[in-house]
Structure prediction request, 331 residues.
Amino acid sequence: MKLLNNRGISAVEMLVSTVMLAALGTLTAVIVTNVQTMVGSTERVLKIEEMHSEIMLILSDPQQCTNTFAPHSIPAVGGSVTIPNGDGIRIRDNSVKYSTNSAIGSRNMRIESMTARNFNTGSNVGARAPYTGVFTFEIVYSYEVVPGGAVRTQTRQIRLNTLPANWNPGTRIVDNTNPAGCTAGLGAGLGLDLGPFITRDNTSNVKFNDLRVNGKVEVNGNIVIQDAGSMRYPSDERLKTDFTKLNFTYDQIKQVSGYSFKWKDNGNSDYGFMADEIRSLDSSLVSHEDGKSDLVKYQELVPILHGSIVSLGNEAKDIKKRINKLNQKIK
Prediction:
């Protein structure tokens, strides 16, 4: 038997409407929290890219590269050297600017470790003249996903060219009597003169002087943003046309899941989406080149998620109106 009040509204209908409104409110809060977490995590990763880019530019200066690695010895060809705590990236006055096991900035980020590895020499190792050897410098950075939360790591590598005194175990990585003992080699050998665009002050800070590139640029861990700056995108209304408000529904958004996963190349844990699922949402959010992996335009997900939140808000308003009408009928 269906129990009705004097307005013809059943108690079950009232209960269902109330539960739906509560569920929509909870779902909206979850989406907002996830977006905030994603933005915060992206901000920290960009800070790491900024830091790594600065370190790479420091090591592109042969004197600073020599200062950094001359104190350390090679265990054997192909071996590795762990930079001890308190030592690290040295600048022109031979002081340590960034050290192992140290905090970087004020965003709960650290340099966990620095390791020189894969030492090799000979005509077939790809060392650029006049250098005779190569090795890989690996830096492990860490940051908290949210303040006080889980810690994630990011590993970055720099390939360096060297002029070792010799390659016997126990000798120095580079000859400390040669001020040009090693370099990261930015721009060298590529016909690029970066001098007019990149400058260093007496503390080894690097500044870009209106260096602009038109066209496609592929960057592997080399994005530099000064502390007073930020990453921005053109968004002036005068530059755009054919505006269409986004109206992605929850049913569309829920087809895409967030995942925790590990990268196959280094085993590092990370969070993100699957490109195939993002493509099902909107193919323009994923780019692909033959022979390369799919790339997701993460920054474009923000307005889409915002649009879905607005859509949920509109649904919540409609349900509130229905409940108000039901309440009016009951009174």
Remarks:
- The CA atoms of residues 89 and 251 lie 50 Å apart.
- The chain has two domains: 11-43+246-330, 49-208.
